[in-house]
C-alpha cells in the first residue's frame, strides 16, 4: 500500500523553502548538544536571570541563612545547640548545618529523636564511604557539595553526588525529603536565584543568639547554618549578569534548598519536548515568512528577535521555564535565510518558467520560425523562388562542410536526381565558370532533358563574403524568357539574397555551438538564458509590431482607428491624404463627426449605425465621395468594432473592444473603369447606329430598280465594309468589356484622353498663375477614346506641361489643342519661351545617352510609352521662340 501524505503536508510541500526549514531544524537539533551552543545558552540565561521580577522577595523564601565564624567549627558547640533548640522552639521547620559540629551526646540524642536537625559532611577524600552516607540509609546526614560550573556559572545542583564510585545524597536533598518534598535521587536541577542575593534572609550567629530568632522570622523555614571564612568556598558566579552576582557556598546551598522546598526549580525543555517545541517553532517561522515581502525582512527579523527575548524572559519569570533561546535564534536566522532563499529560487523558477513560456508563446503564436532557426530553411528558399519566378523546375545544391563537393538538397517540379552532371565538384566546370562570373550563367544539359519542353537552363552560384555556400540550377521555358537581361539581373539579386541568408544562418549556428562548448555556457544560470531568449523574442516581436505598424500605415485602404472615447488611436497615410484633401482634420473629429461629414447623414442616423456595429457585432458599409472637382474620389465607407482575442485582455476599454475601425476604400478606379466601359458601350452603340444607317441606305439603293450595275456593286461593297467594320468594332469592344481589370493587365487600353488632359490643365493653372502665364486650351467638348495607359498618359501630359511652363517667359502663354481624324487623335502643346537648339532637344528626348535632368528623364520615359502604344511624338524647338510638342495617338473606334 502506497503511503499518502496528508493534505496539509502536501500544502506545506508546495510552499517555497520547506526543505531549507527542515534542514535548519535538523542542524540546530544536532548542534544543541555542543559546548558552543550550551555556553551561549548559559550566557543568555545569566543575563535573563538578572531581570527577573521581585517575586523572589525575602518573605517568599523558605530558608533563613545563619552564618558563623569558621573558628566555631572546633570550639564549644553550646551556642550552636542553643541556636538549634531556640529555632525549633520558635517554629522553624528544621535546622541544617553545612558542616559537622561536635555536638554533645545529649543534643545528638535529642536531635536524632527530633528528626529536624541535619549536619552536613564534606566530600570523603578516600574511597571509604561511611555506611551512613548511602542514599538508602535514611539517616540525617548529607554531603555538602556543589556541582561543577556550567561554563563558569554555578546555576545547577544535584540531589546526590558521585564520590569515588559511591552515590551520596546531598544535604539539600535530605533536607527537602525531611520536609516532605520528594525530589528524584540523582537528579540535576536548576537553582532558582529569583530576587538575587539581597532577597535571601540571613543572620549572623551573634545576632541569632542575641534574641533575633523570633517566631515571625523562622516559623516554617529551614534554618541553614554555615561557616564563613577559613577555607570555605567563595566567589561563585551565579546567574544574574555575568560576574556581577557572586555568591558564597552558604548562599548557594541556601538557594538550592529553597528551590527544592518551593518546587520552583528552573526547568529547561526536556529531551523529548525540546524537538517538538523547536519543530513547532520552525513551522510557525516557516509559515510566517511566506507572505512577508523581502523588503521587510530586516524589520521582521529584529522584531521577532525582540519577541523571542521577551517570550523567554516571561517564561522564566512566570513559569520557571527556560526556553532554548539560542536554538530559537539559530532557527530564526537559518529559517529566514533558507526560506527566503527558497522563495527566491521559487520566484526565479517561476520567472524562468514564465520567461520560457512567454518566449514560446511569442514564437509559436505571433512569430514565424526564423530562417536561421529552422531546419527547413531550404524549403523557405524553394517557396521564395517559386513565388517570384515562373521557372519550369529548379534544384538547390549545398556545399559539404570542409569539402569541395556539393550535393542536391531540395528541388521543385523535378527530382533531385535530374542533374546530369555527376562529379558534383565545384572546382570543376560548370561550377568554376559560375564562380568566376559571380553571376548566373547559361548551361547546356546540366539537367536531364525534359520531353516536349523547350527550356533554357541556368546555374547560379550562391556565394557570400567569398564563401561558397552552394548552387542553384533551374530551367525556364523559352517562351517565358522574353527579356533575358532583366530576368538574369533579377535572378542574380535573388541568388544574392539567398546566399546572404544562408551565410548568416551558418554564422549564427556556429556562434551558438561555440557558446555551448565555452565554459561560460555552463557557468551561466538558466534564468539569464531565459532572459536572453525572451529578450530575443521581444526584439523579434518589436520588429513584427513595427512591420504591422508600417503595413497599416502603408495600406492602400485608408483606415483610422478610434477608441470609444472618441480619440484617434491609429491613422494611416492614405486616410491622412484623403481627409486632408477633403479639408478635414482627423484629430479634431470623433468617429461620429467623421462619418457624418463623409456621408452627409444626420448624427442620429450615424449613432444608430454605430450602435448596430457595437452591440450587434456587425459592420456597416456606405458609399460616399471625398474631395472636390477633379480630385473627387468615390469611396466605400466601412466601419466596425474591433474585438476578439486580441482585445480580450484590455481591461479599461468598454465592451472589451479595441475601438471603432473606419475604412475608406477608394473605388474611383473601379467606377472610372465602369464609366469607361459605359462610354465604350455608348461609343459602340453610336458607331453601330451610323453603320446601320449606312447599311439601310445601301440596302434601299439595292431595292431601287433604277440603280445601275456599278451603283449596285458600290452599294454591296459598302454593305460588306460596314458589316466587317461593325464586326471588328463589336469584337474589340467586347474584348475590353469582358476584362474586369484591363487597366492592370494590358499595356494599352481605351482611355478618355480629353478628360485627363482637362484635369492636367486645371492642376497646372495654379503654377502658371504664379508666373502670370496664360494657358489657352482649344479642346473639344467630346472626343473619342485613345489607346493608351491612364496613369502613364496623365504623367506624359504633366511632364510636357511642366517643361513648357518652366521654359516659358514671364507673362507668356501655353497653348493646347486637340483634334481627331477617323483613326487618330492629335494633341498639340506649344509655348512662348526660351527654347533650345533642335539637335540638343532631339538628343535629350530621343537619344540613347544618359540624361542628368529629371525633367528630360521624365519626358524621355513618356515618349517611350507613347511609342509603345503605337503613337508618335514630334518636337519642334526654336531658340528664343519656344517649343512645340505634337502627339499622335490611335483612336479606339
Concise overview:
Helix 6 packs parallel to helix 9 and helix 19 (591-599) crosses helix 20 (603-616).
How does this model look, in words?
By secondary structure, the chain is an alpha+beta fold. It folds into six domains: 7-45 and 270-345, no CATH class; 54-268, no CATH class; 377-517, Beta-Lactamase; 554-645 and 654-666, Beta-Lactamase, CATH 3.30.450.20; 672-744; 749-890, Histidine kinase-like ATPase, C-terminal domain (Heat Shock Protein 90, 2-Layer Sandwich), CATH 3.30.565.10. The radius of gyration is 58 Å and the shape is elongated.
Core attributes:
6 domains; 6-stranded parallel sheet; about 900 residues; alpha+beta; 31 strands; Beta-Lactamase; 5-stranded antiparallel sheet; about 20% strand; elongated
Principal-axis shape: elongated
Helix count, DSSP H or I runs of 4 or more residues: 27
Integer count of domains = 6
**Helix-strand category:** alpha+beta
Helical fraction: 40-55%
> Strand share of the residues?
15-25%
Q: What integer is the average pLDDT?
A: 78
Biggest sheet architecture? 6 strands, parallel
Low-confidence runs:
131-139, 644-651
What separation lies between the terminal Cα atoms? 99 Å
What spatial order of strands do you see in the largest sheet? 4-3-2-10-1-9
Q: Report the count of strand segments.
A: 31
Q: Measured on Cα atoms, how large is the radius of gyration?
A: 58 Å
Amino acid at each position: 500500500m502506497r503511503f499518502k501524505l496528508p493534505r496539509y503536508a502536501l500544502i506545506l510541500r508546495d510552499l517555497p523553502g520547506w526543505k531549507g526549514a527542515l534542514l535548519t531544524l535538523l542542524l540546530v537539533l544536532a548542534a544543541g548538544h555542543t559546548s558552543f551552543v550550551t555556553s551561549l545558552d548559559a550566557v543568555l540565561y545569566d543575563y535573563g536571570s538578572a531581570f527577573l521580577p521581585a517575586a523572589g522577595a525575602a518573605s517568599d523564601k523558605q530558608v533563613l541563612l545563619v552564618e558563623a565564624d569558621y573558628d566555631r567549627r572546633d570550639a564549644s558547640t553550646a551556642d550552636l545547640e542553643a541556636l538549634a533548640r531556640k529555632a525549633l522552639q520558635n517554629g522553624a521547620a528544621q535546622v541544617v548545618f553545612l558542616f559537622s559540629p561536635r555536638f554533645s551526646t545529649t543534643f545528638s540524642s535529642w536531635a536524632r529523636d527530633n528528626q529536624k536537625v541535619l549536619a552536613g559532611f564534606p566530600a570523603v577524600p578516600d574511597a571509604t564511604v561511611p555506611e551512613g552516607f548511602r542514599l538508602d540509609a535514611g539517616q540525617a546526614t548529607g554531603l555538602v557539595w556543589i556541582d561543577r560550573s556550567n561554563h563558569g556559572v554555578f546555576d545547577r545542583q544535584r540531589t546526590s553526588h558521585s564520590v569515588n564510585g559511591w552515590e551520596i545524597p546531598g544535604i539539600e536533598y535530605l533536607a527537602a525529603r525531611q520536609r516532605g518534598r520528594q525530589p528524584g535521587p540523582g537528579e540535576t536541577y536548576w537553582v532558582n536565584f529569583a530576587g538575587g542575593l539581597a532577597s535571601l534572609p540571613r543572620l549572623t550567629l551573634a545576632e541569632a543568639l542575641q534574641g533575633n530568632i523570633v517566631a515571625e522570622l523562622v516559623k516554617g523555614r529551614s534554618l541553614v547554618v554555615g561557616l564563613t571564612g577559613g577555607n570555605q568556598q567563595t566567589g561563585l558566579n551565579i546567574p544574574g549578569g555575568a560576574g556581577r552576582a557572586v555568591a558564597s557556598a552558604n548562599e548557594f546551598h541556601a538557594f538550592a534548598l529553597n528551590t527544592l522546598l518551593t518546587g520552583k526549580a528552573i526547568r529547561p525543555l526536556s529531551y523529548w519536548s525540546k524537538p517538538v517545541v523547536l519543530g513547532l517553532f520552525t513551522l510557525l517561522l516557516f509559515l510566517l515568512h511566506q507572505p512577508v515581502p523581502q523588503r521587510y525582512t530586516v524589520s521582521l527579523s529584529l522584531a521577532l528577535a525582540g519577541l523571542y527575548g521577551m517570550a523567554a524572559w516571561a517564561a522564566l519569570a512566570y513559569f520557571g521555564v527556560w526556553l532554548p533561546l539560542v536554538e530559537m535564534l539559530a532557527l530564526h536566522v537559518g529559517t529566514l535565510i533558507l526560506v527566503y532563499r527558497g522563495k527566491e529560487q521559487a520566484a526565479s523558477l517561476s520567472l524562468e518558467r514564465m520567461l520560457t513560456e512567454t518566449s514560446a508563446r511569442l514564437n509559436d503564436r505571433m512569430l514565424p520560425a526564423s530562417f536561421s532557426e529552422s531546419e527547413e530553411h531550404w524549403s523557405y528558399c524553394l517557396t521564395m523562388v517559386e513565388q517570384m519566378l515562373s521557372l519550369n523546375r529548379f534544384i538547390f545544391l549545398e556545399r559539404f562542410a570542409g569539402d569541395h563537393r556539393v550535393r542536391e538538397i531540395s528541388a521543385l517540379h523535378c527530382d533531385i536526381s535530374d542533374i546530369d552532371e555527376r562529379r558534383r565538384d565545384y572546382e570543376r566546370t560548370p561550377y568554376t565558370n559560375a564562380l568566376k562570373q559571380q553571376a548566373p550563367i547559361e548551361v547546356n544539359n546540366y539537367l536531364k532533358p525534359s520531353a516536349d519542353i523547350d527550356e533554357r537552363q541556368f546555374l547560379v552560384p550562391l556565394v557570400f563574403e567569398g564563401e561558397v555556400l552552394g548552387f542553384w540550377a533551374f530551367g525556364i521555358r523559352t517562351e517565358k524568357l522574353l527579356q533575358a537581361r532583366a530576368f538574369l539581373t533579377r535572378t542574380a539579386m535573388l541568388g544574392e539574397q539567398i546566399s546572404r541568408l544562408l551565410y548568416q544562418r551558418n554564422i549564427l549556428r556556429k556562434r551558438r555551438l561555440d557558446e555551448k562548448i565555452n565554459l561560460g555556457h555552463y557557468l551561466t544560470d538558466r534564468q539569464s538564458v531565459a532572459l536572453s531568449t525572451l529578450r530575443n523574442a521581444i526584439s523579434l516581436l518589436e520588429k513584427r509590431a513595427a512591420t504591422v505598424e508600417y503595413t497599416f500605415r502603408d495600406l492602400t485602404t485608408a483606415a483610422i482607428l478610434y477608441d470609444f472615447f472618441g480619440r484617434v488611436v491609429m491613422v494611416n497615410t492614405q486616410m491622412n491624404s484623403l481627409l486632408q484633401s477633403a479639408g478635414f482634420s482627423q484629430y479634431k473629429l470623433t468617429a461620429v463627426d467623421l462619418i457624418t461629414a463623409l456621408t452627409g447623414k444626420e448624427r442620429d442616423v450615424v449613432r444608430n449605425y454605430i450602435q448596430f456595429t457595437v452591440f450587434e457585432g456587425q459592420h456597416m458599409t456606405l458609399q460616399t465621395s471625398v474631395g472636390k472637382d477633379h480630385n473627387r474620389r468615390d469611396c466605400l465607407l466601412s466601419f466596425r468594432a474591433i474585438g476578439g482575442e486580441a482585445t480580450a485582455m484590455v481591461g479599461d476599454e468598454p465592451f472589451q473592444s479595441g475601438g471603432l475601425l473606419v475604412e475608406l476604400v477608394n473605388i474611383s478606379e473601379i467606377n472610372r473603369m465602369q464609366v469607361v466601359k459605359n462610354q465604350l458601350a455608348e461609343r459602340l452603340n453610336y458607331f453601330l447606329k451610323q453603320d446601320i444607317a449606312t447599311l439601310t441606305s445601301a440596302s434601299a439603293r439595292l431595292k431601287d430598280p433604277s440603280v445601275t450595275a456599278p451603283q449596285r456593286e458600290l452599294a454591296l461593297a459598302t454593305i460588306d465594309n460596314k458589316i466587317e467594320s461593325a464586326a471588328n468594332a463589336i469584337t474589340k469592344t467586347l474584348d475590353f468589356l469582358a476584362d474586369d481589370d484591363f487597366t492592370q493587365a494590358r499595356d494599352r487600353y481605351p482611355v478618355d484622353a480629353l478628360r485627363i488632359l482637362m484635369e492636367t490643365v486645371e492642376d497646372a493653372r495654379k503654377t502658371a498663375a504664379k508666373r502670370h502665364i496664360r494657358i489657352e486650351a482649344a479642346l473639344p467638348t467630346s472626343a473619342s477614346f485613345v489607346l493608351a495607359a491612364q496613369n502613364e498618359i496623365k504623367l506624359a501630359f504633366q511632364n510636357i506641361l511642366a517643361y513648357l511652363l518652366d521654359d516659358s517667359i514671364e507673362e507668356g502663354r501655353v497653348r493646347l489643342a486637340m483634334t481627331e481624324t477617323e483613326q487618330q487623335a492629335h494633341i498639340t502643346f506649344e509655348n512662348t519661351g526660351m527654347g533650345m537648339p533642335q539637335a540638343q532637344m532631339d538628343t535629350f528626348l530621343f537619344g540613347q545617352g544618359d540624361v542628368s535632368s529629371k525633367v528630360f528623364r521624365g519626358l524621355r520615359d513618356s515618349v517611350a510609352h507613347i511609342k509603345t502604344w503605337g503613337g508618335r511624338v514630334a518636337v519642334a524647338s526654336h531658340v528664343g521662340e519656344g517649343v512645340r510638342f505634337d502627339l499622335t495617338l490611335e483612336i479606339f473606334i
